[in-house]
Amino acid sequence: MAGTAPAGLALAGPTGAVLAEAGDVRELLTRTELDRAGALRSAGDRDDFLAAHALVRLCAGRLLGRPAQSLTVVQSCGSCDRPHGRPRLVEAPGTGVSLAHARGWVAAAAAHGPVGVDVETLDGHPLDQRVAEAVCSEKELAALRADDDPQRAFLRQWVRKESLVKVGAATLDAAAGLDLPVYGQEPPRWRGWRLLDWGGERAVGCVAAREEMRLRLLG
Hints:
219 residues; alpha+beta; CATH 3.90.470.20; 32% helix
């Protein structure tokens, strides 16, 4: 419809499926990124890193209508000279991008403004009550206690908070004071930010953005 703002795009999926779709990651990633991946001791961690950094290019390329190979992703934290922190596109600095990886799953997002994405895998472990109390509000803790699967419920809130941290709307130090809507009970909005949730048997995730986001799960 004329006048409708374009939507951003989020992609997520198992690491293996993402690597299969990305092809030769050496054609996509910078030397700095390849060196960072090579420094990781675990083969699984290396694959997760490579997949996430490839996926954010695929995501941004589809949003912008450009080949993924033409996009350069750089990272900086503002506190040191190490190449980590919030990612950005050299060729399209006004486009927001974000990436995440967690033990066999990766996610990426690209939008016309700020965007943050997070993903967490479900490992079958019970909820760590001390961790939950450190990062959840009293309302959220009450919802966790009432849920049939407290760990999944906790991770659903956690990925929301992480995605908001990545757009600069919150900090992890103040996570417990970030009183978000309870998953499945209230509209997924927070102070003007749209929260796009997803989840399955193996992973849960969330994207935070000002604009509408489209989601595609790979694999």
